[in-house]
Prior knowledge:
Helix content is 24%, strand content 36%. By secondary structure, it is α+β, with helices and mostly antiparallel strands. The longest helix has 13 residues.
Amino acid sequence: xxxxxxxxxxxxxxxxxxxxxxxxxxxxxxxxxxxxxxxxxxxxxxxxxxxxxxxxxxxxxxxxxxxxxxxxxxxxxxxxxxxxxxxxxxxxxxxxxxxxxxxxxxxxxxxxxxxxxxxxxxxxxxxxxxxxxxxxxxxxxxxxxxxxxxxxxxxxxxxxxxxxxxxxxxxxxxxxxxxxxxxxxxxxxxxxxxxxxxxxxxxxxxxxxxxxxxxxxxxxxxxxxxxxxxxxxxxxxxxxxxxxxxxxxxxxxxxxxxxx
Length: 260
């Protein structure tokens, strides 16, 4: 049975079966993000899969990453109702269904990683850390300028600056590196780090590592699950994240889809 729901307790019970795999979904149940969401589930006696449509960005985001046939059934039923364009996280076996309506620009296989305190190396302190601070609304223009130079098209919701969980590194007065949270919810005890970027003229100095490490330290005080996503072929980034204490957990696909 496929149904649309806004029962956050029902959804949370399902997503807590694997809080790393479903970190985005858990975070989006938070009252800060929830108004921008629509949810569909399959259920037998229990919930077996879900599809999340997140509409806060100009390009919608669809998350449909359960690894079973019921996830395919949701895709099949909802294809006519979904937006003409979206950024999707999905399973490779469901791609033929998605292609029934959409053209795909594949963004690669991605690795979902989870931070584990015991796995973090202790020797990552650096002089760069002293130039890191929490970013606020007063930094909006510098943040926009940095993403324009270093990571065009990054998914960064400026509203999240209110949460005090975006870290920046500076060279003098210039913001040159950033690490943010795609979702952050103490209520559901989860955060996903994302939109990590360093200005091209300041790379190779450990600034990206510094902002990410400092953000992890901050998050570790108030959530149980810290995740991040990285392209499977980005070996350099994966090596840095592993030194910071992240372990590889799940694989999934990302793509931009547009109606054919």
